[in-house]
Design a protein that fits this description.
The chain contains four helices and three strands; from the N terminus they run αβααβαβ. It is an alpha/beta fold and about 90 residues long. A three-stranded parallel β-sheet has the order 1-3-2, with helices on both faces. The mean pLDDT is about 95.
């Protein structure tokens, strides 16, 4: 994100925000080590981080808004970060 902002690259980042490291949580369960600390990320504000790097940011809450904002992002002069909230789902490993 930072490099894209510094060079004003027309990149679109779509970030699925589920407030946890789901893949690592699932891997810990697979390895029989559940409860590893640091896997929950409820306060991680991707939009603020991206804005701090100099990216245009937008939060969406529907498929329609995602499609609209993605189209807008394709026409932007620099990078855009679109944050999409999702529900955590365990990954199916092994």
């Amino acid at each position: 994100m930072y490099t894209a902002a510094q060079h004003q690259l027309p990149v679109v980042f779509v970030v699925m925000r589920n407030e946890e490291y789901s893949i690592l949580k699932s891997f810990a369960v697979l390895e029989e080590t559940p409860g590893v600390p640091g896997m929950d990320l409820p306060g991680l504000d991707i939009a603020s981080i991206a804005t701090g790097f100099g990216c245009r940011t937008v939060n969406v809450d529907s498929c329609e808004k995602l499609a609209h904002e993605f189209t807008n992002a394709l026409e932007a002069d620099g990078p855009t970060v679109i944050v999409v909230p999702t529900k955590p789902q365990p990954a199916h490993l092994g």
